[in-house]
């Protein structure tokens, strides 16, 4: 799966986009620069997939519709393809730049050696895109049959039936499902590929700036992966990644207007397709960027008219063709433009900053930010180096802007200036969340201006500037961007492959047997368990009858508080393996046990008439049992009580453990922020096999040992968010009765992806090996006092049959 998603899938994507690009090139008159073929082809495929899913009976044919267009393009564009192939040796740099961007963008996944993605714990929107891409390809833009009583249906309805832009999802779903690949493992390669497509227009713009060969390639790569763009790509912001490629391509066409503006009306097709794809992917809010490129074209047409090189009729025909293609290619958005405008206004005016603890700094536009997350500020030495790099980039930007005006590259200079104006307009009209998106989409343009400064130095008549200063500034620009990207690569949190694959196996095993109640907070379960009509009380959209079982979005589920009536609609309950959590009610029996999850199925017997979680001192617990017995006996003398035994837990006291002084605290847990070891003592009452359970979020490699004997190295064990400590895979150890010492050791610096990621330990405890998932004791209700001396999690009352 790793090779299929990271190598085979992008290769097929390249063929699809290049083939579709050749078709567009052929239809529009064979004038497109070769570097723009993939991004233009992607725009055409977005249009096709939007139309086929809008006509929802055709939705399942979307992958094949997307295949037909590239095949036609490869056939009709064969002469152009042969022409390009003959010139490959002279075009090595424009080929190498996108390949390098793809490797940089996918570096955390590539270096991990397993299928995964890097947006885990950072932004749950990627779970929505996986869910939506699967739904749209299988059902199209048709939502009447959704079950809104559970989380799966509510998520699809609240997003896609509310005019949420879906162009990125239909392209993603159609291309990945063409190969039958799991969307969850194809998601990051898709993001990386789409960012690599943006390197093509960045190359064209670098050439317009005045750079050639390796210099242009370095500029294209730097402008495609500046720190802010790279950070957004790592967290799976697929809409913005696709929009960036469309924006740069529109800028490249505006800057190269003499190549096509004086031609026949069909020359406007690529420009219109790119604008339509951006609208389909990002919504009508994207229109500000096509308007910036269009403004440059309007000024250029006016200049051409004054020079007598064009006619009003020709430009009117060109504009008419463009408007027609723009309308048809983004038809689903235009037909629901009021809904799309409502979404844009809502997002632009929301006071919710999303995952941003504070507004981004304007200096982050400059492409350098030596911190593991764009949401945080550099500190110490990294802050000092970042400030120096910012000064260098700013100075280069000033030189670049002057250089572009002096060399009369007015179309390019005008587009870059309008990009900055668009960023300011978006920032003034929007709140934190949208302003950050605008800054990300503008960052590439700013980096290109800085590279224009390098071009100015290389064009200088002073040899020292050409020979020494230009390479130093170029090294600072490229090196600063790459160093910033490495910091984020090193701090990435990669999705837990084994656990999510176990969820997928449950979907195959129990498909169609839902609805299923999921007590674990992980919104990727919505996609992995998509055939079980999932409901989660701690998801953003909880089932109404179960919302009270959690304290809110992402909060722990208190299954012991569930009433019998509220659970009747759930034949299945899927729980995380956690002996410290309350087990499901007695009406459910264990159907399947995995490494991470238990699946419980409702039996045929009647459910309990009353269910009470036991808590407090022994006298209080006994009084609670008596109350349950009284309720049960109202149903007749044959009533009974069922009690779930509380597990035997040996807790390791973290408060008494020794650990490095630099380890901080998060809630009740420890943040293992630097290399070092935690050592703690515990006592087991008897000899035998004991299971060691860790709770927390551990991305870097942490060694676990007992009494100096290594048990395992734990890494990449993360959960849906940082607020809910969940159990990590269980470790077994044979122990003698008595006192022992456990040690957890975080090693030194490594180049591995995520080595600087989350490392939080919330709890350590042990349970006897072989202990059942749940142990029940049944007694007549009249004998309720026999339960007062035991340790039970809950008690239920069953009326007489």
Describe, in plain words, how this protein is organized in 3D.
This protein has 801 residues and is α+β, with helices and mostly antiparallel strands. Among the domains are: 2-351, no CATH class; 618-646 and 775-801, no CATH class; 650-768, Jelly Rolls, CATH 2.60.120.260.
In percent terms, what proportion of residues is strand? 5-15%
Q: Termini distance?
A: 53 Å
Secondary-structure-derived class = alpha+beta
The helix content, as a percent range, equals: 40-55%
Radius of gyration: 30 Å
Unreliably modeled segments: none
- Give the overall form: globular
Biggest sheet record: 6 strands, antiparallel
Q: Let me know the average pLDDT.
A: 91
The helix count comes to 26
How many strands appear in the DSSP assignment? 19
Give the structure's gist in a few sentences.
This protein is an alpha+beta fold. Among the domains are: 2-351, no CATH class; 618-646 and 775-801, no CATH class; 650-768, Galactose-binding domain-like (Jelly Rolls), CATH 2.60.120.
Key attributes of the depicted protein:
about 800 residues, Jelly Rolls, six-stranded antiparallel β-sheet, about 15% strand, globular
What's the topology here?
Blueprint: H1 2-28, H2 37-54, H3 62-76, H4 78-86, H5 92-105, H6 107-112, H7 125-139, H8 151-160, H9 167-178, H10 183-209, H11 213-224, H12 227-234, H13 238-255, H14 269-282, H15 288-306, H16 312-329, H17 331-335, H18 337-349, H19 380-406, H20 410-429, H21 432-458, H22 463-490, H23 497-510, E1 516-518, H24 525-528, E2 534-535, H25 564-567, E3 572-576, E4 588-593, E5 597-602, E6 610-613, H26 618-633, E7 640-645, E8 650-651, E9 664-666, E10 669-671, E11 676-684, E12 688-698, E13 702-706, E14 709-714, E15 731-735, E16 738-746, E17 759-768, E18 776-780, E19 792-798
Parallel strand pairs: 1-2, 1-3
Antiparallel strand pairs: 3-5, 4-5, 6-19, 7-18, 7-19, 8-17, 9-10, 10-17, 11-16, 12-15, 12-17, 13-14, 13-16
Helix pairs in contact: 1-2, 1-3, 1-10, 2-3, 2-9, 2-10, 2-14, 3-9, 5-10, 5-11, 7-8, 7-9, 9-10, 10-11, 10-13, 10-21, 11-21, 11-22, 12-22, 13-14, 13-15, 13-20, 13-21, 14-16, 15-20, 19-21, 19-22, 20-21, 21-22
């Amino acid at each position: 799966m790793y090779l299929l998603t990271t190598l085979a899938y992008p290769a097929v994507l390249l063929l699809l986009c290049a083939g579709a690009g050749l078709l567009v090139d052929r239809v529009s008159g064979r004038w497109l620069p070769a570097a723009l073929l993939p991004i233009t082809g992607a725009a055409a495929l977005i249009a096709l997939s939007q139309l086929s899913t809008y006509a929802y009976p055709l939705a399942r044919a979307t992958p094949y519709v997307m295949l037909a267009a590239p095949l036609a393009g490869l056939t009709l564009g064969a002469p152009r393809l042969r022409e390009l192939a003959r010139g490959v040796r002279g075009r090595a740099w424009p080929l190498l730049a996108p390949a390098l961007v793809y490797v940089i963008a996918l570096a955390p996944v590539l270096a991990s050696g397993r299928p995964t993605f890097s947006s885990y714990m950072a932004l749950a929107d990627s779970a929505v895109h996986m869910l939506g891409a699967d739904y749209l390809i299988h059902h199209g833009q048709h939502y009447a049959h959704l079950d809104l009583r559970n989380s799966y249906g509510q998520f699809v309805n609240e997003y896609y039936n509310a005019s949420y832009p879906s162009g990125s999802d239909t392209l993603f779903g159609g291309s990945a499902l063409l190969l039958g690949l799991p969307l969850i493992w194809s998601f990051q390669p898709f993001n990386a590929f789409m960012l690599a497509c943006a390197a093509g227009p960045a190359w064209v713009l670098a050439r317009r700036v005045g750079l050639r060969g390796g210099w242009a390639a370095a500029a294209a790569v730097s402008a495609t992966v500046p720190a802010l763009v790279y950070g957004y790509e790592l967290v799976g912001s697929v809409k913005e990644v696709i929009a960036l490629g469309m924006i740069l391509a529109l800028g490249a066409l505006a800057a190269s207007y003499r190549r096509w503006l004086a031609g026949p009306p069909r020359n406007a097709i690529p420009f219109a397709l790119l604008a339509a794809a951006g609208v389909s992917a990002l919504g009508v809010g994207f229109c500000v960027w096509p308007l910036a490129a269009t403004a440059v074209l309007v000024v250029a047409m006016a200049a051409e008219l004054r020079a007598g090189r064009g006619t009003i009729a020709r430009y009117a025909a060109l504009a008419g063709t463009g408007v027609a293609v723009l309308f048809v290619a983004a038809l689903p958005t235009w037909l629901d433009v009021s809904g799309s405008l409502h979404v844009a206004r809502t997002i632009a005016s929301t006071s919710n900053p999303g995952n941003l603890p504070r507004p981004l700094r304007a200096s982050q536009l400059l492409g350098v930010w030596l911190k593991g997350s764009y949401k945080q500020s550099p500190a110490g030495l990294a802050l000092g180096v970042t400030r120096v790099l910012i000064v260098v980039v700013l100075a280069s930007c000033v030189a670049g802007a002057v250089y572009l005006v002096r060399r009369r590259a007015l179309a390019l200079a005008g587009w870059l200036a309008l990009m900055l104006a668009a960023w300011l307009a978006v920032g003034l009209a929007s709140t934190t969340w949208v302003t950050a998106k605008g800054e990300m989409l503008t960052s590439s343009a700013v980096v290109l201006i800085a590279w224009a400064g390098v071009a100015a130095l290389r064009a200088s008549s002073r040899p020292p500037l050409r020979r020494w200063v230009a390479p130093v500034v170029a090294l600072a620009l490229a090196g600063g961007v790459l160093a910033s990207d490495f910091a984020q690569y090193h701090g990435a949190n990669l999705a837990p492959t084994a656990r999510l694959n176990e969820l997928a196996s449950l979907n195959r095993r129990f498909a169609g047997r839902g609805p299923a109640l999921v007590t674990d907070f992980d919104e990727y379960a919505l996609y992995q368990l998509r055939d079980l009509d999932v409901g989660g009380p701690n998801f953003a959209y909880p089932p109404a009858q179960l919302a009270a079982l959690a304290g809110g979005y992402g909060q722990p589920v208190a299954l012991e508080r569930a009433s019998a009536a509220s659970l009747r609609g759930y034949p299945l309950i899927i729980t995380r393996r956690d002996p410290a959590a309350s087990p499901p009610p007695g009406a459910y029996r264990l159907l399947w046990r995995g490494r991470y999850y238990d699946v419980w199925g409702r039996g045929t017997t009647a459910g309990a008439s009353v269910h009470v979680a036991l808590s407090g001192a022994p006298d209080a617990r006994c009084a609670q049992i008596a109350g349950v017995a009284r309720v049960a006996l109202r149903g007749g003398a044959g009533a009974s009580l069922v009690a779930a035994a509380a597990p035997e837990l040996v807790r390791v006291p973290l408060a008494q453990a020794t650990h490095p002084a630099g380890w901080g605290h998060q809630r009740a847990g420890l943040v293992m922020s630097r290399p070092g070891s935690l050592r703690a003592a515990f006592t087991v009452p008897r000899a035998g096999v004991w299971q060691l359970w860790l709770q927390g979020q551990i991305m870097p490699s942490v060694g676990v040992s007992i009494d100096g004997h290594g048990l395992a190295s734990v890494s990449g064990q993360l959960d849906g968010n940082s607020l809910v400590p969940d159990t990590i895979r269980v470790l077994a150890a044979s122990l003698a009765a008595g006192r022992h010492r456990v040690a957890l050791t975080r090693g030194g610096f490594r180049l591995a992806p995520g080595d600087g990621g989350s490392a939080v330990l919330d709890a350590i405890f042990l349970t006897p090996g072989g202990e059942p998932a749940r142990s029940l004791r049944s007694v007549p209700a009249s004998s309720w006092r026999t339960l007062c001396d035991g340790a039970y999690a809950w008690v239920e009352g069953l009326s007489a049959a």
